[in-house]
Amino acid sequence: MSHRFAQYTPADFDDFDCVKVSKVIYLILIFVLRGYLVWLMSVSNLRDKVGVIQWIYPEPSLFYLSLFSGSLGIFVLIILSLRRPEASRWVQNSWQYIRAILLCSLVFDLLINIVGYFYWQLQSLTWLFINVSVVLGFCLFLYKSKRVQININEFPEKLPE
Length: 161
Hints:
Blueprint: H1 23-32, H2 34-44, H3 51-56, H4 60-69, H5 71-81, H6 89-95, H7 98-118, H8 125-144, H9 146-153
C-alpha cells in the first residue's frame, strides 16, 4: 500500500493530500468539448463571430453534432469542478464512475462522428480514422493508468488544521 505512492513527488499532490487529477483527463475533456471551445472562441472574436465556427466546421450540422456529442463532457466538467471536501453526495457518487462517464462520452462522440460520416457524409474518412485512433488511445489510457485509478479511489477530505 505504501509503495502505491512511491513514484509521486510532493508536487503531485493537491491541498487535500490527494494525487492531482491526471492531465490526460483534461486532454480528454478538451477533445470531447472541442465544439464548445470553438463556440467560445467565436463568441470572444469581436470582428467575426461566425467565422471561426465556419472555418473549423464548414458544415453547420458538424458544429451542432459536436455540441451534442460534448454534452456528457459538460457533466464531467461539472463533477470535476465540484470535487472538493464538502461536495454533495451526488458529486462523490458520480466521481466513482468518472472513468465510465468519460468512456461513454468518448464512445458517444465517436458514434456521432461515425453517423456524421456514413449517414450524412459530413466528414472525411481521414478525420474518422484520426478520431477512432484518438478515442482508442484515450480509452486504453483510462484503463491502464494507475494515476487514474488512484484519482478514482481518492476523494478530497477536509484535513485537520
